[in-house]
Amino acid sequence: MLRKILLAALLAGLPVLTMAQTPEEKGLQIAQDADAYDQGFVDFTADMRMTLRNKKGDESVRQIRIRTLEVDGDGDKSLSIFDEPADVKGTAMLTWSHGLEPDDQWLYLPAIKRVKRISSRNKSGPFMGSEFAFEDLGSQELEKYSYKYLRDEPCGEYQCYVIERVPAYEFSGYTRQHVWLDKEAYRMIKVDFFDRKGEPLKTLNASGYRQFLDRYWRPARMEMVNHQNGKSTLLEWTDYRFQTGLGENDFRSQTLKRAR
Amino acid sequence: MRWSVFLAWGLLLIAPVASALEWSGNVALEARIYPQSAQFTGQQDDSLSLSLQPKLAHSWNQGTDQFAAELFLRADPENDNRQHADIRELKWLHVAGNDEWRVGIDSVFWGVTESQHLVDVINSIDRVEGIDGEDKLGQPMLHYTRLLDSGAIQAFVLPGFRQSEFNSEEGRLRLPLPVDADRAQFESSDEEQHVDLALRYTHFLGDTELGFSLFKGTSREPEYRTILVDSAPVLVPYYAQMTQFGLDLNSIVGDWIWKWELIHRDQSAGSFSATTAGFEYTFYAVNDSAIDMGSLLEYSYDSRPADQAGPFNNDLFGGLRFAFNDVQSTEVLAGAFVDVKNGSKSLRVEASRRVGDSWKLTGELQVFTAIDGEDALQAFERDDFLLVEMARYF
How large is the ipTM? Predict the structure, then answer.
């Protein structure tokens, strides 16, 4: 009898314990769950069309093929092969990302057939003149941020958690980010970026999510709007393929010049 | 020369038929302006020329088999010698697990430094196209690569030597006497048919990368001998046999990249060493803009007597590289060589910017100043030039 009462009291106490979870703990929990949800994809490839738009509405297009290899216990390896604009066709960039350590990064320059190791400590610079910084497109490892749960909120067709994440990386261009993750599958719906002075800088909206291998969700469109300079960049993703059989040898500086 | 032109046009004709092939390349109009009067009589002043660089690629078996061809053609109505064609690439690549085979004509880049490329000896330099050693003639080769856990071993068999072409007597940026390449002399009795061999081992240690290389065969760097032709002195290139050991090291420490190249070359006339060492330090987001500024400092030394050494025998190179990170990918590189001993200076500014989606405008300014009478750059003293190139990429 006493045991039953104790058990009942314990069970009754559980929700209380959950509510006692601090916003930081809950934020981390959500980030961990989101991270776990995307584990095990092994590799994927996709085509990315990047449209840069300035205040006047002038557009400029880049066409890039992306290949990513999941790495257990470290950041992912990724390869970007440029098809457009024509003057950079054949240029390839290889990145071995590492949580809080600077990434290893190499660039293949087809004009002089040279593979060059490049410094990657600064990730806040623009990628190809766009409104995406290198750190916005890099592998999203858990330890790159500290987290805090803010609130629940509807986000378009979904219900979202809103969490704040503060970059742990010393050379990040942001003081914090607000991230909307849908409660059902942890799809990243929206991100607000705040600059080094804490001012609102950019907003990213992702849409057109499709599921692959009955598990992994990827967006068809990601639009980044810069509130300070009025420019925007649209990423349109097509031809996602998962578990294509890519291996370590496809992500090495020694093989970068034959990446096609 | 003649066979390569024939092959080049032949490939151009065949190519459109094969629709599975992937085409790219560029066509460019280049203007060179030499503001100073020439040092030697008969040298031209300004020139306008057109170049075409088509590339063809095809891959099959999930990229484990690849075919690549790249041609270079230049038409320069005022300088016969700059009128040339070269097969930069015509090769088949086959990948099987950790083994890679490349057969055909190809270009290879070895090394890490920016101001000169001592270790890089597989390809002959296209001296007509540029003076920075980055334009190379396609080299016939059999090239095997074995990928290792953290590096690679490469072996090269190089049948046939590609002779550099030289600017003609009327051209600027030429040697003090006309060069008669048709009378070139070779140490080996096999002459241009000598089969050269090379090995390279690269090792990855995280932030540091190391390369060791060995080359045995015909030197790509000509020596010059003066002979009399119709009682007029001319230079003939002499190509010695050499064994060269090379070391290159690249190390990243925060925003610093440290670079070092060292060679030791044995020839029958003796042996020497040469080195280039320095760093690149990058300042990111200068003044909160998107501009990154890299600063470069490299020192080069060559142990040969000054009259036999290359132009950078005891020289300091300092440079600034600006990447604007804008939509047009604007880049500027400004650099200067200063001979520590004799004070000769060579300054160079290169800038490029995309125009629209498929055009690129490039400018290059080269200035030679305070050139010492004994310096290897003496013949270029009055050949300061401004180059403007507009290229259309396809």
Answer: 0.91
